[in-house]
Amino acid sequence: MATITISVDDDIEKEFRETARKKLGTGKGMLGKAIGAAIKKWVEEEKQKEVARKGRELTVKGLYKLKAWKFRREELYERG
User: Among the four 28, 34, 43, 46, which has the fewest Cβ within 10 Å?
Assistant: First the structure.
């Protein structure tokens, strides 16, 4: 388990504590759980942004070309 010391604006801290208390209650470790979930969500969002950025780069460079997929309408509705 890691320890992180941070400084945030008083308004943000107050709002975060109130929201965490409403969502998770007042039990021991509640604030740590809420902060851990917030950090995890932020990391996942940043990873997704990186995946999207790399995908856009590949598309712009022309390395990721979608091949035409031809089909007949009847094939989509065939019953087996």
Answer: 28
